[in-house]
Write a structure and sequence with these properties.
Shape: globular
Number of strands: 2
Order of helices and strands: HHHHHHHEEHHHHHH
Helix content: 55-70%
Strand order of the largest sheet: 1-2
Structural class: mainly alpha
Mean pLDDT: 94
Length: 331
Amino acid sequence: MQSKISWIDNLRGIACLMVVMIHTTTWYVTNAHSISQVNWDIANILNSASRVSVPLFFMISGFLFFGERSAQPRHFVRIASCLLFYSAVALLYITLFTSINAGLSLKNVLQKPVFYHLWFFFAIIVIYLVSPLIQVKQVGWKMLLALMVVIGIVANPNTLSQKIDGVEWLPVNLYINGDTFYYVLYGMLGRALGMMDTQRRGLSWLCGGIFILSVVIISRGTLHELQWRGNFADTWYLYCGPMVFICAVSLLTLAKNTLNARPLPVMGLISRHSLGIYGFHALIIHALRTRGVELKSWPLLDIIWIFSATLLASLLLSMLLQKIDTRRFVS
């Protein structure tokens, strides 16, 4: 169990860093005409490689709660506390430092989050709600692979339409609709892969290669969309899209095989503060961007600066919050 906890801690830390990177590079990938092609390509690759972060969080939750133990009342109290606390912080930030209509944000709080990144707290509640009903069984790798190919790619409604002589052959319509299906599926896969013996010869190298190849496909696909449409489109970035799905499975397996000895010092620290970092980071990035505390004349340096400053500030705020929140309700 200790080895499983170790790779979970390391993977949570990696996923947390990736979330910060997604929001750090978002301005560049969505403003391609304002920067050079080289700088856009760098931002696109970094963002493409980081898209796997959100699926990984669902897979980690599924590993923890889709087995013998399920979410308990204290877990629901904690997630509700987090949603209320970080929504209140975001609302305070909006009121004091932005021109966003705070009243409208509060009015629609049950329909959409106060600040964009807080959607995850709503989505993860579903994993907690269904956890008492789901206990994933151990399955063979062939059956699991077949399931992933069919549901993750062949019948994935986010798979780009493929036609021959006007006849659509991909994706196959299995009446799969909505992202929530895939969030729950990510959770079940996290548990199934976590229980499986993945220490097979060459599998880690294979997963690493698949992850890199998938990132290349996501980034090149996004470039193609930009050139074709004349503007950015997130077709290949979708968290439930087939290539991000493949990335998530391959990176989780790779981390489980190679990062299971002990929590790495940096990853362990980030993992322990991942909740606070997630809750604060988007506000800090918004503040840095809107207040002009950035280096857009040097995009690569700006990405490094915004990422580092955001991570450090979020980490310090999380540390301070943990000093106050001794029972870890929101930290």
